[in-house]
Write a structure and sequence with these properties.
The structure is a homodimer. Chain A is α+β, with helices and mostly antiparallel strands and about 325 residues long. Chain A has 5 helices and 15 strands. The first copy, chain A, has a single domain, classed as HIT-like (HIT family, subunit A, 2-Layer Sandwich). In chain A, about 25% of the residues lie in helices and about 25% in strands. The longest helix of chain A is centred in the last third of the chain and has 19 residues. Chains A and B meet through strand 1, strand 2, strand 6, strand 8 and helix 2 of A and strand 1, strand 2, strand 6, strand 8 and helix 2 of B.
């Protein structure tokens, strides 16, 4: 018998179907393996990207030259323009504004063949520090209300270049999927005076069935009502509303949690494409008691998970308890 | 300069990017052309499907034999089970219920090689009547709160069989994308005492720039803030909250509007895959003044529109005014 489960934060119902394909081997997918070849993100090609915004150069060196470990550049084909006024206005009953925003690329390593799963721990930690540096800088720009950090890994997940990179988009609006989570979290807080994510963490730690990894400061789980097979979530165990507010002592632990879960996905699902999104509080309410930042990770498994297309309603053939068991058991070096 | 536009019903902001690919020829896509071959939905194969729920047989004949024009059968691999109690219950702070529901397939024509765009008008109209017959029947089952009708056309859109068919899922919950639209429409009605969709129709008819086709009873438009290139919407011009409440005199006009816009998409985009979803009121509030049923149609154009993956935030490279102009000009026989 399939089950209908309600996401406690957004109120979204999902069908967890147990009669269909569900084990890792039941999914068709493309193995993501870097091929190499010419790449504008590789060292020595610094003039192929727009001029860098920042870079980590542990041994020094001039901007836009090799020697960096992490490098941030404007997206060459930005979805939004950085210059200008928002000019919020109506067109009859409709609302619009200029598409002002920042669209940046975080090049995660000089090594084309690496990924967040294979980089040394320090390399992953540096990527997280780069996220924080960029967020703190962009928050100074009063036009921006939300800073969205995400990663498309592999072509099936939408990546157009294989060199390891993440993206950042600073927006003058709060995306509706964030607004929904904020609304749900606020409503819960209004009733209970507790953060709903903190409650979820307590319950997941007690039941253990959806826990993938439990470390000192972070918890990796398969969520109660996942939309996609092998969807996973990394949460800080102590309440923290925005990722950039994380104490500096947490970065190594977060890097390890991220590297571990990606290694487990690679092992269990044979290096799948995936999307990663950091869910964090909007700029104007970045310190609050009701919202709890987290990372959502969605492997892109084709052919089976396509029910959602267009309907906005999800059927997930893999119960999160089974996904968690597979990933718990997946061996990471 | 790209533009940020707000969907007036859901409040969702979308980036309408004008600097990227945007003309029909800029999109990669797979042309959907039926190949034929063995098919369980073809006449003579009636015993390959579960026993039929209903069928139109203009010349009579026994159930589960050839001679039908439209045939409705249970989905052989249903996402939900039809038998049993809902058994709503909690698991700590989480909520769930049994996955009870109906999952049916509407086989739209005995002819494997046809589609809604190529069927005679009467054939399309019969499909719409079949939708209504099934909705009216399923509404009697007090376990169901929403009846979702959708169509995946072509493999890239999630269709697993090429014989023309739609699907129906009766659900004991209201999907969250419907709840969002209902909430937005109710809030607008609370302020204005007018249906927001009726206001949209009036404004679109006045400005004309996003109108694709305007007929006696239906309006086909490219919406103000579309998520996807060439997304289109068919609305009844007179207020009607639920599709099954449509006056019988409207079915021919709706069939023509649907056939025409699909023909135009085929012509402008070379027979793309697409998803079609009927947005209608939930069973328990099927007659109301604030929600207005409509059809959403999303061509599946690959490689460009993939930004959304995982982020829940949309960048659309084709302004709806340009999409509407292309589709207005597309010639349909």
């Amino acid at each position: 018998m399939p089950e209908l489960r309600k996401d406690p934060v957004t109120g979204r119902w999902v069908i967890i179907s147990t009669d269909r394909a569900r084990r890792p081997s039941d999914f068709l997918r493309e193995k993501v393996v870097p091929q190499g070849g010419f790449c504008p993100f590789c060292p020595g090609q610094e003039d192929r990207t727009p001029r860098e915004i920042m870079a980590y150069r542990p041994n020094g060196g001039a901007p836009n030259t090799p020697g960096w470990t992490v490098r941030v550049v404007p997206n060459k084909f930005p979805a939004l323009g950085i210059e200008g006024e928002l000019a919020r206005r109506g067109e009859g009953m409709f609302d619009k504004m200029n598409g002002i925003g920042a669209h940046e690329v975080i090049i995660e390593s000089p090594d084309h063949m690496q990924s967040l799963a294979t980089l040394p721990l320090k390399g992953v930690e540096d990527v997280l520090w780069a996220f924080r540096d960029r967020i703190l800088d962009l928050k100074k720009d009063k036009r921006f209300r939300y800073i969205l950090i995400f990663k498309n890994h592999g072509e099936p997940a939408g990546a157009s270049l294989e060199h390891p990179h993440s993206q950042l988009i600073a927006l003058p609006i709060v995306p509706s999927y964030v607004r929904e989570e904020m609304d749900g979290a606020k409503a819960f807080y209004g009733q209970k005076e507790r953060c709903i994510f903190c409650d979820i963490i307590r319950q997941e730690l007690q039941s253990q069935v959806r826990v993938i990894e439990d470390s000192t400061d972070f918890l990796t789980v398969a969520p109660w009502a996942p939309r996609f097979p092998f969807e996973t979530c990394i949460l800080p165990k102590q309440h923290e509303s925005a990722v950039e507010n994380s104490p500096s002592g947490h970065y190594e632990g977060l890097a390890r949690a991220l590297k571990n879960v990606l290694g487990k996905l690679n092992q269990a699902l044979e290096s799948p494409a995936y999307n990663l999104v950091i869910h964090t509080s909007p700029v104007m309410e970045s310190t609050n008691d009701y919202y709890h930042w987290h990372i959502e990770l969605m492997p892109k498994l084709t052919k089976v998970a396509e029910f959602e297309w267009g309907t906005g309603f999800y059927i997930n053939p893999t119960p999160p308890e089974e996904a968690a068991a597979f990933l718990r058991d997946a061996h990471v070096d």
